[in-house]
Amino acid sequence: MAETKKARPLTVDQIQEDNITQLAGLHWSQEALKNGAKFKPQLVEEIYRTELVNTGFSTRRSMMLEFSQYLENYLWPNYDSEKCSYAHQLSIAAMVNEKFRERVPQWETFKRRPEKFADFFHQMLQACLHEGKPFREQSLLLLFLIHCFNSLEVDLIREQVQRLVSLPIWNNLLQGRREELFKGNPKYKKFFNLLKKNDAKLDEKKRAKVHFEREFLSKMLKKFDKVLSEIKETGKVSPDKVQYCERFIELLIDIEAQLPTRRFFNALLDHSHCVVKCQLSPLVKRKEGKLFSELLDMLNAYTEFEIDDTTGEALTIHDRLDIHYNRILKLQKMAFKHFPDLQNFAIANIASVDSKKSLIKYFEPHSSANLHKLLAYAHELPQPDTEENYIKDKQYLMEVLISKHAKRKSQLEQLNEMPLYPTEEIIWDENIVPTEFYSGDGCLALPKLNLQFLTLHDYLLKNFHLFRLESTYEIRQDIEDAISHMKPWQSEEGGCLFGGWARMAQPISEFNVVEVSKPLVGESHPSQVRADVTVSLSVRPEIKAEWEGLRKHDVAFLITLRPTVPMSHKYNHKEPFIPQVGLTYVRGCEIEGMLDAEGKVIEEGPEPKPDLPGDLRTFRVWLDPNQYQQDMLGTAEGKEDAYETFNVIMRRKPKENNFKAVLETLRDLMNTHFVVPDWLHDLILGYGEPDAAHYSKLHNQIENLNWNDTFLSMDHLRASFPNCPIEVTTDDVTKHIPPFRLSIKDKESDSNKRKEGEDEPKTQRHIIVDPYVISNRGPYPYCLPKKNSVPFTPTQTEAIYSGMQPGLTIIVGPPGTGKTDVAVQIISNIYHNYSDQRTLIVTHSNQALNQLFEKIMALDIDERHLLRLGHGEEALETEKDFSRYGRVNYVLAQRLELLEEVGRLQSSLSVIGDMSHTCETAGYFYLYQV
Length: 930
Hints:
Elements: H1 12-17, H2 19-27, H3 30-34, H4 41-53, H5 59-67, H6 70-75, H7 86-102, H8 117-128, H9 135-149, H10 155-161, H11 175-184, H12 186-200, H13 204-229, H14 239-256, H15 259-272, H16 274-279, H17 282-285, H18 290-303, H19 317-338, H20 343-347, H21 356-363, H22 368-377, H23 394-405, H24 411-416, H25 424-427, H26 456-486, E1 488-490, E2 496-498, E3 505-516, E4 529-536, H27 541-548, E5 555-561, H28 577-581, E6 583-594, E7 616-623, H29 625-636, E8 648-651, H30 659-671, H31 678-685, E9 704-708, H32 714-720, E10 726-728, E11 740-747, E12 764-771, H33 794-804, H34 819-833, H35 846-857, H36 884-909, H37 919-929
Parallel strand pairs: 10-12
Antiparallel strand pairs: 1-2, 3-4, 3-8, 4-7, 5-6, 5-8, 6-7, 9-11, 11-12
Helix pairs in contact: 4-7, 5-7, 7-8, 7-9, 9-14, 11-12, 14-18, 21-23, 22-23, 26-30, 33-34, 34-35, 36-37
């Protein structure tokens, strides 16, 4: 199927001539409203039918309606819950969905008449449960619900959504299951009983509405089960029905991915066994169900997410094991009590029975009736009244049993076994890596960066996946560009012949896997896999130099092409890419280095690389051990060995090719137990006030700080803190010169006492200035030629003060406003105030880092404490070497100078012995003799 063409934007003439624009001018434009245009319900019906339904809810028609302010001027101002039609309701939902697609403010319109929103939302919920409505309309309603659940920051929305996912929804659980949950959370039982008493006091109408809201999600799950069961494994299936199923899974994911909505709903979802039913559904086995399956995997991961739903705390490895062991122990007790023929299972140790294979071995021989009884005792299924009501589907019962009790790999274990390089299956999967033509209409199997995250692991994991797929999108473009230029054709012998050439890709002359190291303890994949790739660089000298200049840790891609088109075939960029070029495999690798004439890796260093004769060059590369392990397991099952088929190697531009290092860093971070400050932890996860990380909100502010050369003079200092009383510790004007040490205290002044209605009293800063002489500055000598010369403004001074305090400081502004100078001064002040700490500076580019570094070098910072890592160090405008090698040489040179000085002192003092043999000996010599 050819790629979808990107819709051309509408011109001004097309917009003005459009029928919707004409209607808006007559009925809901500002001019029409001023002229007294009346609301016509039949017009809403007509527009809904002709512009939305008949066009299949076309994006272009929805965009025209939204552009004409159909919602703001016509639909919502004339909304009446008692007179509003179904078409009116869905038109409002469609406009909200379109606003989300266009990423414009969505809920501002509803804030004008907030008292009507509760009735509208209730009608939307009722419409979601309607039977017999077209699936296209039902999907539209689901998308509206998804947007509501993703807008919890809006008070108007949160008030309605919380009613659907609050504690009373546990009324839909089996009583035994509910009592189990109450045992772990006694306070919930108290609240639950209190809510029951309050319900008894409500009138019949209000009680019916309350019960409807509490049962809504349970009824939606049952409706979804019914729709899913109607899809057969073979035969035709409605695309709208499939889309409805996809949207419903997306809704469940969004509810599960946020703690406020997940806390009570997760038990309801688990009780419904929705995930198991989906996994066994025929839709998963159909080709139309690929996106559905990918979404289902995401939902399954969130249902078992490692978090305590009550407290919101992340579960440790021991917490997970305790939960798992308790489940198995409970199952063993029930088996021992009710099923004598399961005695062997009941008395076995947990490690021998908690695998899927073991559970099948023990429970597969039992009848469906016995399995149902067992699950009923475990409060997973209702106890049947008669034998006829037992569930007959044994596969379903076994899957429920296994899903609850089989030991699963943790998210971290799964992440550690995941390949970091994308393969051909991911690169061209438009469900997770959309094309440039994606307009936001469909559903994608991508994690969402919501307002809130479950845990820090959830935050890092989402960013890991999104960054990986964003890089994959760029990799896909690079592969398509390079391979298209190479023009692969099928030769007469059936091989691959290239009719063109590409700067970033070369045919492989030879490929060999040279090393497969043994796995490390506790791992199943090889610790290292290395291979040699030989290419013939018979190209222009500058391109040859680029290939020979590949550095250690640069990423390349190994590609297998099996074209089916004959020689001289002209490629069509409008046709699908893979079938034309015959792309079969894509595997990533990391450059270790180029081999010399003796077959040894040429090490990086200050020496120039040796000149190699001829055009053949061999690169030693590291393959991804996880991917290699998966491929070898596939080969053992009879699949082709991809590592014997590669015929193209592709490199990428260094600036765009750091994705593997970023992914490895994220993965290492998730494998490391690290401590994040509470204020930063809550800020990242989206809890609490957004400004809680500002230093003024923290309790550990530092009053006395060394400002060094921040201020050029006393007048500059006074101008930097306008309207603040400033006191100097000395009256000697000759000493009123920088550097300064300031003591800043916030005091409540008499004129700024707390006024009625104010949350906090207003404070005023009181500043004590202490000029100090150079000799008292501590371990770092003050070099007069190297000091700040920028007259910082009061706003910049406040930014510097914030950067010196604990907490988060963000400096923003247009180019030329002095952001770099402020950042450099903050770094310098931190260096002098916290001499026992290290500062890491990270920038988005080498140029930005060099710009910062050069300004830092010009300040009063000891040269031995500066280190420039990464590429681009050679572009620094200095003759000194600040790389790792340069710093080692600098320290060694300083050491030699010190030892020579010791030698001269030893000679002048006539001390016998080699006092400069080691630094320790020289230190003792200096201590006792000098």
